[in-house]
Amino acid sequence: MKVSELIELQRAHHGPGRLRGNLGDGLLFAKNPFYRRVRLATLARGFRYTTEDPGSYFAFPLAALDTVLEKRRVPYRDNVAALERLERVRPGFFEPSDLAGNRPLPNYLIHESAHAVAFHELFGRPRDVKRALAGPDSLLGIELGEAYAMTAEYFAACAASAGVHRWVFSINSYRQRTPARGTIGEMVRDLGLEFVVFTVLLAFLSNLFFRERLARTSVEQMVELWTAVDRSQRAPVAKPAARRRLRRALSELMPMNPEFRRDTTRLFLTMFGRPRRVEKLFEADPLELLGRNAEALAASGRLVRLLASDAP
Predict the structure, then answer these.
(1) What are 49's strand-pairing partners?
(2) How buried is residue 307: exposed, middle or buried, by Cβ count under 10 Å (0-12/13-18/19+)?
(3) What's the number of domains the chain is made of?
(4) Is there a domain that residue 52 lies in?
């Protein structure tokens, strides 16, 4: 494939809900159901996309998240124009492989969009976003929002399995690896997409609470929580062997660089008044916290269904 063909794909897949200036946006919208669902859910909640830079996002995304949520504008850079300029320099010559070490700057739109959707579902539309994030009971919602962004990226990455789809996804997401992809796919077939998305969400939540692996009883807790989300649901994991297999798969996809997790968590939370020793904030079991918070649990169910179905 040539860069000129990438540019043609960009034009061919443009349409409603898609961004002409974000490389691969239309193709991902058309081919990747998770990318499309997050985009539609973001737009349905009143967020819009902009090439302007609210809160110095392009210089420091983590420190600008509250501004993005406050202004309800998700920023991105026009990286298509840059690629078009390269193509004009030597038409028909360049290939994506030529860009392996020098790619256009990425846009992490699925991650930031998932943050926007999660914030809307967990916090509503507060007048003061900073005050909402600094609230004494906001910690679970903050970490659920990050876990949801990670979950959306994980499933979208699993759907972008090969070829040009994979290449354009790689410059639209932080997520490049898909550990346990095969096992998670089998679990989706056996147990249903919604339930498996829910377990992945809670696995990432557990990791954000500084848990490196799931406890033996974690899957049982997840089954109970999912049943509480919708009383009509039957427990989807009946056999102990299936529960053990699911727990191993979830533990495999959980790991994050501990120093990166600690430093980013500390920086974000101290922006909103928390102490530097953030580890003290995460001593409680996150699954137990979620079980005691009916609003957060209901919001988790809504977020799961948004990611698992085409109804925004």
Answers:
(1) 74
(2) buried
(3) 2
(4) yes
Structure tokens at 293: 């918070």
What number is the average pLDDT over the span 191-214?
95
Q: What are the tokens at 311? A: 């109804």
Q: Do 33 and 310 contact (CB within 8 A), yes or no?
A: yes
Write the burial class of residue 69 (CB in 10 Å: 0-12 exposed, 13-18 middle, 19+ buried).
buried
Distance CA 25, CA 58 (A): 19
Domain of residue 296 covers 181-308
Q: Same structural domain for residues 163 and 211?
A: no
Q: What is the DSSP letter of 105?
A: P
Q: What are the pLDDT digits (tens) for 74-103?
A: 999 999 999 999 999 999 999 988 998 888
Tally Cβ neighbours within 10 Å of residue 111: 22
Separation CA 207–CA 121 (nearest Å): 21
Same domain flag for 105 and 197: no
In a domain, 175, yes or no: no
Strand 73-75 to strand 48-50: parallel, antiparallel, or no bridges (unpaired)? Answer: parallel
pTM for the whole thing? Answer: 0.96
